[in-house]
């Protein structure tokens, strides 16, 4: 999981297919800023406004994530969405459609920052596509309060892996374990994201969806803060090969995971 950190530095243009940004669209932007500001120590700066009111979350003055206000008439799920880098978002959007996916928003320009689209894979999981211009994406990784990994929870990995490989050129590496359906997606020999087939373990009201992991210094302490701030714990802290992890939900219902990396 931690190998997904940017080895070439945050200001280098991302290889197409690399997760480069995470964004959350919510109904109450001000309350959501308060929750994540207290939880991760984020501060907020406005813009760009192409999707309505939108802010960038900063940690130590560097952008790490984005949040926007959902239009009142849009009944979209409140969920963290990863953006995957592209050299040409229009061409990538065409490939998404050709491979059985859907493009729901865009492609459109986000001021001088870049060009974007929001799409879904054939199973319905939503992701963004980002063609960088002035803004390359998350500028800080590898410290508490930053996104460290993105993982698709889906029915089964084989068919959806073909979609992502066709669109972004990933190589795949299965995790060989009886009864465990998991693939790691690689670019240039480096793991960048995971696909986890959970069959009927998917929530009925959610369907397949991407999940973002945020690094924290102490998972157990962070879980206490989540509860104090109005969120709740979906899966209690437990040890994994990648460190101590837990899954939580914010006050608006957006799921995300926490990981405390072993040192």
Automatic annotation (TrEMBL):
Pfam families: Glyoxalase_6 (PF18029). SUPFAM superfamilies: Glyoxalase/Bleomycin resistance protein/Dihydroxybiphenyl dioxygenase (SSF54593). Residues 18-132, 146-261 form the VOC domain. It comes from the Bacteria. Gene3D superfamilies: 2,3-Dihydroxybiphenyl 1,2-Dioxygenase, domain 1. This is VOC family protein. It comes from Streptomyces actinomycinicus.
